[in-house]
Amino acid sequence: MTVDQVSSVADRPRSTANARPARSDTRTGPSMTTRRHRAFYMFTSPWIIGFALLTIAPMAYALWLSFTTYDGISPNWHYVGLGNYRELLHDAQTWDSLGRAGLFAVISVPLSIIAGLALAVLINRPIKARGLFRTLLYLPAVVPPVGAGIAFKILFDQNTGAANGVLTFFGFDAIGWLADPYARYVLIMTVLWSAGNIMIISLAGLQDVPRELHEAARIDGASAWRTFRSITVPLLSPVLLFQTVTGVIASVQTIMPMLLAANPTTGGLTTIPQSNYTYMIHVFSEYFALGRYGYASALLWVLFVLILVATGLIFKFTSGVVFYNVDPEAKK
Amino acid sequence: MRPQAGAPLSRRRFLALSAGGAAGGAAALSGCAMQVSTGVSGGSGETVTLMVKPEDISPELVKQAKKDTGITIRRVDYDITKLIAMLTSGNPPDLVRAVGATDAAYFAARGVMQNLDPYFAKSSVLRPDDLDPVNDLWRYDGRVQGKGPRYGMAKDFSQDSMYWYNTAAFDKKGLDYPSETEPVTFENWLESAQRLVQRSKGQTTVFGGSYNGQTKITLMAALTASAGGSLFSDDFSRVDFTTPEARKALAWYIGYCRLNVGPTPINPAPQGWDGPSYQAGRMAMSNNGYWMGGMIGADKKLAQVSRLAPAPVFAGGPRISACQGGTGMWMPRKAKNKDAAWRLFEWYFGEAPAKERASSGWGIPTLKSLRPLIPDEEDYQKRTLRTQENELKHFSVVSLSPYITGDGFESLFNQVTPAAMKGEMSVDTLAGRLNSLVNEQLKRGKEQVG
To answer: What keywords appear on the UniProt entry (chain A) (predicted)?
Structure first.
């Protein structure tokens, strides 16, 4: 159709006889926008209801408990305002256990990210039986944490464990791995053992790095290390940031390996070595051994706030070094 | 305000509806949870909710209960947090397992236990005059454990300050066996443990002896009683580790830990308890009472070299042999199905299951009339029974405070004792630290009980 033809059609007078009735402006039924809104809320509502019931409500309940001396069973509990929060400021065990949790995060998060990335780089190379290696390296991450914890406990038992069996075979003295001061190292090993999770995420990131960038670098004469440092790491930085944030959050909340290395009962708390007596163990002890629901809830709320602050700080201090392969302005 | 049909769903309205839905859901869930017990009195044809551990009632026993009493057991796994949630929501189990020594006074003082005296008074199965004194662990008069109304009953028991020893380990070191009737002193026991321990390249191949009690609160209270004192003040609102008797008890235990002759809190038993090490011949002495004979008796070779010995004493101290456990059941005050629960209680503690337990050798029956069922066919059974019967003469209830749980005490105890166990803190400093920590918790407990 030419431009003239188009304009002649546009100028043609409308026949009233053949014209379909004009669509009414007072049509019934929801508009498209309303339907879209409704669909959105319908699809998200299971999550939102679950979030309200299983996250917001318990958190609000814990917040209320944190202002009381409630212990779950005694008849004379009462409201103490900020008393529990004031108490935790002066509780040496709170600060000591928080320090241990922080130290654990500072050591375990970088180590596990480095280990996971190194494994990912290794299995990203074109080697034989790559699929088998990937499976084998990921396998520990699939083992249930309870099984892994118990296996480590057996391996590192002072008197019957395989670790000391190797040491004594070579003429060294056995070590009390599960006692202070070595228990912390076993805990870190437990975390590193399941670095397969990080490996898989890093591997996905590595495979997303454009091959032509590596080829261009190689043509320019860049060494493998320089290519890794200047191309791979910057492009992986969003993945590394994600692993750092989730790693920090998970590590300060770690509790199961400590319990399993001791005796996973309330009474078993007592056999947790001091070096593994982290913040969450302290919370667990206050809740379930001492029955101080109010105080323990205050401890948890403080941890929640500290995690928010730590996450904010990580984002703030990494904003200049994390490279996003999408131009945020282009989307506007 | 009724929303118009077709009007867009605003965020505010959506959140309001979600909140309403959430509240409705919670109410519905709560309503469901309430419908556990019918509350109808009687026995046959009813359902009773038991909060127990799997080993307390096997699936076969559940079937047998139905056959014997007509009552259906709905078993809920024991979990203290679940129990508290059920008690708080007004929907408690009908019967709950607990450890008489550490739990009875704690729960009774908080008013959540049903006084069972009226039931015992009417029962032809569980007659008060037939109850072993160990059941006094389940009595509490509002101040002292061991007196007053009965709130529960033990299923079986042991005198947990006694110990088993392996004669082969003594033979290997050329040591005389401890007497099976006369107690050794704690100092002698520790000396023997030092001579019996076997080490190689930093590993303990054979533990000389293990002495950790059932829990730290029962251990320290029993040791202090053996030294002639009391760990708690008269009103149970305070502990004092600096009294000569309590300090003696504490010093002995810390000394035991420092010598590293057996499992300790800083070097715990690999499997969490002594049994596997003792069974493997890797432990010369194990602080466990008669009940461990059930495990030992299953291994004829082990039974031949095992002996049960009386609870040690402190030189010059009284001979005391307490039960540190007394595990049994209690009935919540707000249980919905009390009569049926009591019928099941009678069955469990006085009929077929009780007889089966008595004849298994895994504990002393808590009804005097069931004593003849204790196994005594084999030589080792006769010998063990002789020792045990002699020890019963020295049984006593060591009362604990209702203001702290066993787990609570243990948690505080182990916060500060590792330093002393490693020799980094003196016993006197430790005693002061323990007083401060434990008394703070006792004060809180007392305030809450009122």
So the answer is: Cell membrane, Membrane, Transmembrane, Transmembrane helix, Transport
Residues on chain B touching A29 (C-beta within 8 angstroms): 6
The CATH code belonging to domain A98-290+303-324 is 1.10.3720.10
3-class secondary structure, A76: coil
3 state SS of B28: helix
Q: Which residues does chain A have within 8 Å of residue B410's beta carbon, measured at their own beta carbons?
A: 267, 269-270, 289
Alpha-carbon span A38 to A172, nearest angstrom: 70
Residues of A in contact with B418 (CB under 8 A): 180, 273-274
Three-class DSSP category at B362:
coil
- According to DSSP, residue A55 is labeled I
**Partner-chain contact A52 B6, CB within 8 Å:** no
Tell me which residue in B8, B204, B215 faces A34 most closely, judged by beta carbons: B8
Chain A: residue whose CA lies nearest to B272: A263
pLDDT single digits (tens) B222-272: 999 999 999 999 999 999 999 999 999 999 999 999 999 999 988 888 777
At B109-139, the pLDDT tens digits run: 999 999 999 999 999 999 999 999 999 999 9
Question: Beta strand B139-140 with B145-150: parallel, antiparallel or unpaired?
Answer: antiparallel
Average pLDDT, chain A: 86
The two structure tokens encoding residue B50:
């038991």
Residue A126 confidence (pLDDT) above 80: yes
CA distance to partner chain A, nearest, from residue B264 (Å) = 8
Q: Do B202 and A164 touch (CB under 8 A)?
A: yes
Across the interface, whether the CB atoms of A76 and B449 are under 8 A apart is answered yes
Every domain of chain A and the residues it spans: 98-290+303-324
Cis peptide before A75 (omega within 30 of 0): no
More reliable by pLDDT, A158 or B437:
B437
- Distance from the B271 Cα atom to the nearest Cα atom in chain A, whole angstroms: 9
**CB burial string A51-65: b at 16+ within 10 A, e below:** ebbeeeeeeeebeeb
- The overall average pLDDT reported for chain B is 89
Alpha-carbon span B365 to B349, nearest angstrom: 9
**Burial letters for B314-351: b for 16+ Cβ neighbours within 10 Å, e otherwise?**
beebebbbbbbbbbbbbbbbebbbbbbbbbbbbbbbbb
Domains of chain B: 47-158+324-393 (3.40.190.10), 164-322+403-449 (3.40.190.10)
- Region B26-45: mean pLDDT is 43
Which member of B203, B407, B414 has the closest CB to residue A164? B203
Quick one: which H or E segment has residue A192?
helix A183-193
In terms of Cβ atoms closer than 10 Å to its own Cβ (0-12, 13-18, 19+), residue B28 is exposed
C-alpha distance from residue B363 to each of B145, B285, B291, B292, B367 (Å): 22, 19, 4, 8, 12
CA separation for the pair B105, B113 (Å, rounded): 10
Q: What is the percent of chain A with per-residue pLDDT over 90, rounded to a whole number? A: 53
Cβ of B18 within 8 Å of Cβ of A49? The answer is yes
Distance (Å) from the C-alpha of residue A270 to the closest C-alpha of chain B?
5
A292–B444 C-beta distance less than 8 A: yes
Q: Please, which pLDDT band fits residue A265 given cuts at 50, 70 and 90?
A: low
User: How far is the C-alpha of B188 from the C-alpha of B204, rounded, in Å?
Assistant: 21
SS3 B329: strand
Q: Would you state the pLDDT for residue A142?
A: 87
How far is CA A7 from its chain centroid?
62
Q: Which of B429, B400, B407 is nearest to B239 (CA)?
A: B400
Distance of CA B52 to the CA centre of its chain: 13
> Position of tokens 């039931």?
B119
Model pLDDT, residue B267:
83
Q: How is residue A287 annotated by DSSP?
A: I
